[in-house]
Amino acid sequence: MKTPTKRKSSVKVGALFEEYCSESSVHGVRFFVGNQRGACVKLIWVSVFILSLAGCGMMIQQAYNKWDRTPVIVTLSEVPTPVWDMDFPAITICPEIKVLNTKYNFTHEFEALQSQWYQGKGTTNRTITITDESIGKMKAIMHHCSGIYKYEGNFMFNFNHVPEPNLVDFLKDVALDRRGVFTMCSSTSDARCNDYMQVTLTNEGICYSFNMISQAEMFHPDVLQDEYQYLEPWDTDGATVERGELLKVAVMVKFSAVSYLRNAANACPSFSAQRGRGYRVLIHEPTVYPDLSKRNIRLSLSQTLTVALKPNIMMTSPELSKYSAQKRQCYFGHEHPLRFFRRYNQDNCELECLTNYTLARCGCVHFSMPRTNGTRVCRFEEEHCPYDARGALFIRKQNRTGTDDYLLRCDCLPACSSVRFDLQITQDSHTEEREVRTRFETLEELQARLQM
Ligand SMILES: *[C@@H]1O[C@H](CO)[C@@H](O)[C@H](O)[C@H]1NC(C)=O
Ligand SMILES: *[C@@H]1O[C@H](CO)[C@@H](O)[C@H](O)[C@H]1NC(C)=O
Ligand SMILES: *[C@@H]1O[C@H](CO)[C@@H](O)[C@H](O)[C@H]1NC(C)=O
Ligand SMILES: *[C@@H]1O[C@H](CO)[C@@H](O)[C@H](O)[C@H]1NC(C)=O
Ligand SMILES: *[C@@H]1O[C@H](CO)[C@@H](O)[C@H](O)[C@H]1NC(C)=O
Question: Are the CB atoms for 214 and 243 separated by under 8 Å?
Answer without folding.
Answer: yes
